[in-house]
UniProtKB/TrEMBL annotation:
Annotated protein name in UniProt: p-hydroxycinnamoyl CoA hydratase/lyase
Pfam family, one: ECH_1
Keywords of this entry: Lyase, Plasmid
Family statement drawn from the similarity comment of this UniProt entry: Belongs to the enoyl-CoA hydratase/isomerase family.
Enzyme class: lyase
Molecular function in Gene Ontology: lyase activity
Organism of derivation: Croceicoccus marinus
Domain of life: Bacteria
Taxonomy of the source species: Bacteria, Pseudomonadati, Pseudomonadota, Alphaproteobacteria, Sphingomonadales
Length: 279
């Protein structure tokens, strides 16, 4: 296992058992996102996306935080002092890697090991799945220092939880713990902190057994259909299935063969054996 760290030191990653563990790496700053960190995340996501030595990416934070949001000094004050052009460049970089993560080629999991504030809701929402430590802290603190939750955070909280929870969370600026975050739908599940990495790795190992083309098509479909009418979604999904088959029809055939002819698995109880599939 070799850990790679960017030249600036703000981002690190390691690949273990076909899982890429990607770290916010500013533990002394509770992993606040600076322009440098955002640029590094863009570069690392580019470097990793199409590598064949891993199949699932986990995003987490070094130390006691996932990410405490945007660095108020570096991202806001220092960037704004350089003028509108610098501000827009910083926004493109941060929003850009969150967007990349939303449509990433591999399944992604957010492992919220501690503080998750403000701008950190961007990469939280960008990941396909999310798990948190029960004592992790989630907060939209923007109202406490005089702005609204920008950078997509208001849309994200409204998307992930109900109207009353979203309104209270954004207007009051109060934190909720991992258990409440799971109840609200901000994460899939909250577990004791000492079991968090094990639980996330177990989920990653299950995903590694699935057809990767089907996983990519499925994660994209879930995001797309949320803003469609039923009829539009139905038509889109028919075309999406046809497109997926055009890339990987052998996988579809193999799955059907193992179920119908070989009777070697049951789709409701697990995935077909990828090792038997023709490349």
């Amino acid at each position: 296992m070799t850990r790679t760290t960017t030249a600036s030191g703000t981002v690190a990653y390691e690949i273990v058992d076909r899982v890429a563990w990607l770290y916010f790496n500013r533990p002394d700053k509770r992993n606040c996102m600076s322009p440098t960190l955002n640029d590094d995340m863009n570069a690392v996501l580019d470097e990793l996306e199409y590598r064949d030595d891993f199949g699932v990416l986990v995003l987490t934070g070094e130390g006691t935080a996932f990410s405490a949001g945007m660095d108020l000094k570096e991202y806001f004050r220092e960037t704004e002092a350089k003028g509108l052009g610098a501000t827009r460049a910083a926004q493109r970089s941060s929003y850009g890697w969150w967007r990349r993560l939303r449509w990433y080629q591999k399944p992604t999991i957010a492992m919220v090991n501690g503080w998750c504030f403000g701008g950190a809701y961007g990469p939280l929402f960008a990941c396909d799945l999310a798990f948190a430590a029960e004592d992790a802290q989630f907060g939209l603190s923007e109202i406490n220092w005089g702005i609204l939750p920008g950078g997509g955070a208001t849309k994200i909280i409204r998307e992930l939880t109900n109207f009353r929870n979203a309104m209270y969370h954004a207007m009051m600026g109060e934190n909720v713990d991992g258990k409440t975050a799971a109840e609200w739908g901000l994460v899939n599940e909250a577990v004791p902190a000492d079991r968090l990495k094990e639980r996330v790795n177990d989920v990653a190992q299950v995903l590694l057994q699935k057809n990767p083309v089907a996983l990519k098509a499925t994660k994209d479909a879930i995001r797309r259909v949320g803003e469609m009418t039923y009829d539009n979604a139905e038509d889109f999904l028919v075309r999406a299935q046809e497109a997926a088959n055009s890339y990987d029809n052998e996988g579809r055939k193999e799955g059907i063969k193992q179920f119908i002819d070989e009777k070697s698995y049951k789709p409701g109880l697990g995935a077909y054996d990828l090792n038997k599939q023709k490349s």
